[in-house]
Design brief:
Layout lengths: L1 H6 L6 H23 L23 H15 L3 E6 L2 H10 L4 E7 L11 E3 L17 E6 L6 H14 E10 L3 H8 L2 E2 L14 E5 L7
Parallel strand pairs: 1-2, 1-4, 2-3, 4-5
Antiparallel strand pairs: 5-7, 6-7
Helix pairs in contact: 3-4, 5-6
GO molecular function: nucleic acid binding; protein-lysine N-methyltransferase activity
GO cellular component, one term: cytoplasm
InterPro entries: DNA_methylase_N6_adenine_CS (IPR002052), Efm5/EEF1AKMT1 (IPR019369), Mlase_EEF1AKMT1/ZCCHC4 (IPR041370), SAM-dependent_MTases_sf (IPR029063)
Length: 214
């Protein structure tokens, strides 16, 4: 009964197939651009999004806005931690600031190309961090938990509270507003972050200090 077996094979709609083909074509074009131009390893998109890891990069404009906000909030000589927020880390590195330092805590080991500033991070083990990452040693922590679940937010919040001296900039879904207030004491900002690809879920920024995002 071959027909029954065939019924179990999921079929992609023509729309989905077209979108996939467009995505792969864009990917090939980007790869081509990387080899033909002087390639900046810190530019957003230099490491491709991996949807299976729930990765969605910010638009260039949003990444710039959040990076600049972090620099101002950290202050001169400030330390900035990017937790699961690699596109903000990349933008901070593009700013090439001498007045701040930054590190990236990320599950995706492709980001280990950034050397000592890369710290492997799994939100399931929020305090499994290197010994040299001292508690309350960052002037601001920017975090973008990979999943819109209270469990993910709660565990990421443990990491954030361990790292920050006080200031927190959280990026997550609008539906997480109540949980964000509960676990981190942050409030929603007027600024609305955008991604390079449109997401189904409305995204917002949250802070616990007087920020430039309002």
């Amino acid at each position: 009964k071959m027909d029954d077996d065939d019924d179990d094979i999921p079929q992609l709609s023509s729309h989905t197939l077209a979108a996939l083909q467009e995505f792969y074509l864009e990917q090939q074009q980007r790869e081509g651009m990387k080899t033909s131009q002087g390639f900046n390893q810190y530019s957003i998109g230099s490491i491709e999004e991996d949807w299976q890891l729930s990765q969605f990069w910010y638009s260039d404009e949003t990444a710039s806005c959040l990076a600049n906000e972090a620099v101002v909030a950290a202050g001169k000589g400030g330390r900035i931690a990017c937790v699961s927020a690699p596109s903000i880390y990349q933008k901070l590195k593009e700013l090439d600031g001498k007045d701040f330092s930054v590190c990236i805590l990320e599950y995706d080991r492709r980001f280990s190309v950034y050397g000592e500033e890369f710290i492997f991070y799994d939100y399931n083990y929020p305090l499994n961090l290197p010994e040299n990452l001292l508690p309350h040693s960052f002037d601001i922590v920017i975090a973008d938990p990979p999943y819109l679940s209270e469990e993910c937010l709660q565990k990421t919040a443990e990491t954030i509270k361990y790292l920050t001296k006080g200031k927190i900039l959280l990026c997550t879904g609008a539906i997480m507003e109540e949980q964000a207030a509960k676990h981190l004491g942050v409030k929603i900002c007027k600024f609305i972050p955008k991604h390079s690809r449109n997401l189904a879920n409305e995204f917002r920024c949250y802070v616990n200090y007087a920020s430039g995002l309002d």
